[in-house]
Amino acid sequence: MSDTSIIDLYERHAASFDRDRNRSLQEKAWLDHFLARARPSGQILDLGCGMGEPIARYIVESGFHVVGVDSSPSMIARCRERFPDAEWIVADMRGLEFNRRFDGVVAWDSFFHLSGQDQRRMFPRFAALAMQGAPLLFTSGTSEGEVFGEYCDEPLYHASLDPSEYERLLVSNGFSVARHVPDDPECWAHTVWLAVRDER
């Protein structure tokens, strides 16, 4: 599956995704760990923000400023309607350029749609986007490989690196792993990484 087809899938099915996305916030414990490490009232970069619920909403309601990025114009349009005081950008995270750094970076259920090689290339970008001491939160698979899920009767691509490689990439790009839970039973069996940008 090409990168374009993944982007097109979410754009075509934005209304369905908005309807189907669970708002029960089982991510809350991880978001609380993440936000506890961010500067109070700081700027949080949400990569692959979708339509802004529930994650961006929770971050905004926790007193932070959200800068949300998604490749789907329809998703971003919903974000702008719901949270007009936040900043919303239609863009592909792989080519994102900012002249500023953020107090936290989150890529929840978005980063894992990139190919393994594109994921490797993202770690220097994460480092360039994160302030010293800022947390990074993302989800992955449990082992290296590619799998296809399904959404709206269409194949949906996911990829993962080996956990040891994620750890090497984090460390080599100036992050320390704070928490890592494979198949977290408290969070829909997500495999979650929380790292912190080294202060150096």
Describe this structure in words.
This protein is α/β, with parallel strands linked by helices and 200 residues long. It contains 7 helices and 9 strands; from the N terminus they run αααβαβαββαβββαββ. The mean pLDDT is 95.
Distance between the termini: 39 Å
Which class of secondary structure composition applies to the elements?
alpha/beta
SSE string, helix = H, strand = E? Answer: HHHEHEHEEHEEEHEE
The helix count comes to: 7
Tertiary shape: globular
* Low-confidence sequence ranges: none
CA radius of gyration is 16 Å
The overall average pLDDT, rounded, is 95
Helix proportion range = 25-40%
Spatial order of the strands forming the largest sheet: 3-2-1-4-5-9-8
Number of DSSP strands?
9
Largest sheet descriptor: 7 strands, mixed
What is the beta-strand fraction? 25-35%
